[in-house]
Amino acid sequence: MTLDLSVLALLVLAAFLSGWLAARRSPATAVGAQADRLRRNYFRGLNYLLNEQPDKAIEVFLQIAEVDKQTVETHLALGNLFRRRGETDRAIRVHQNLIARPNLTPEQKSLALLELGEDYMRAGLLDRAETLFTDLVGIDAHAPAALRHLIAICQQERDWKRAIEHARRLEEITGESQAELVSQFLSELAEHAAAKNDAAQAKAYLTEAVTVAPVSVRPRLIEGRLAHAQQDWRRAANAYERAIENDIEYLPIALAPMLDALEQLDRSESIDAMLDEWMRRYPGISPVIKMARRVRERDGDAAAIRFLAERLRKKPSVRGLSELVDLQLANTQGEAREQLEQVRDLLRQLLDGQALFRCSRCGFGARSHHWQCPGCKSWSTIKPVHGIAGN
Ligand SMILES: [Zn+2]
């Protein structure tokens, strides 16, 4: 069951309890019958919800709301269901009507405001949503939820500075570290400054990002890329090395520019040692392919073919096989060459359209890397795919 659904289920239970209490307050003769009917209806609605049948749940809750106009929780559940079904206009109306009631408790009112804010967000009315969430944070009602929504809005608007303020406030209130998120936002600011050729400002944001989250990878990779562009090979190599130390999963992104920087520094022996270590520690094929190319440059095609074939026996990989076929092609003539070319084309077709990166949270697959998942909007959850067709 999703978090959203379990919250909704709690709301429905609350609605049931308040309906039951209301029924108990009615004259004694009516108590039994009305409480029974309410109980039956609430549990029917709850069942529909748990079975992910929101349409049927809405029908039942509409009936309840008709009989029992005072029950705030029923209306909250209804509005929530309308929003989940994409009927934001109806959700907004339900929640606005609720908020206009004079007899709401402060808790009920702030809950209705939070729901209305989510309706506005869903409807794309970000300004209105932002105002509501800011008010809720101001009166310290549902502040963590409101702050999470505010962060989501700032991300959508790419307002990273305000996103950082909200994330820091969220950390203060909940005690949950937001360091990785803040480091991502600072990295966005650094990218923006770099795009405007403001190297000093970019550097300042990157320094802050690694201070906030020393183990984060992205600021190191950005620093590596900027240093590489300035041909500051030592700084580039150091930054990439730190990135890989912090999380070896990002090796395929850092590998080529890092080796390039090391070659510029004339540190060929350390390249071999590093590739050896990465072949042991990294589960994918990328460092093996790089090493095979180095063997080829140094000792020729036959040595590279032997090296790669040996590695592929231990670690089967379509990408590695494709590299092996390319090596064989360079040394094959006649009919055998034509057949090898067909194999090469087949392998390329196999690799075409294969996702090279995948989100560990929602499964979104992509050919290129994203720091924020386009599917579920999580940060740092998209990593290289290993496996037989990965890198
Ligand atoms: Zn995702």
Brief overview:
With 391 residues, the protein is an all-alpha fold. It has helices spanning 3-25, 28-50, 54-67, 72-84, 88-100, 106-122, 126-138, 143-156, 160-174, 179-195, 199-212, 218-229, 233-246, 251-264, 268-281, 286-299, 301-314, 318-329, 334-351; strands at 357-359, 365-366, 382-384. The mean pLDDT is 88.
CATH architecture of the largest domain: Alpha Horseshoe
Q: Note the overall shape.
A: elongated
Tell me, what is the CATH class of the largest domain?
Mainly Alpha
Mean pLDDT: 88
Residues in β-strands, percent:
under 5%
The count of β-strands is 3
Q: What is the overall number of helices?
A: 19
Structural class: mainly alpha
Sheet with most strands: 3 strands, antiparallel
Largest beta sheet: what is the strand line-up? 2-1-3
- Oligomeric category: single chain
Fraction in helix: over 70%
Please give the alpha-carbon distance between the first and last residues.
Answer: 34 Å
Element-by-element helix/strand order: HHHHHHHHHHHHHHHHHHHEEE
Find the CATH topology of the largest domain: Serine Threonine Protein Phosphatase 5, Tetratricopeptide repeat
Gyration radius over CA: 29 Å
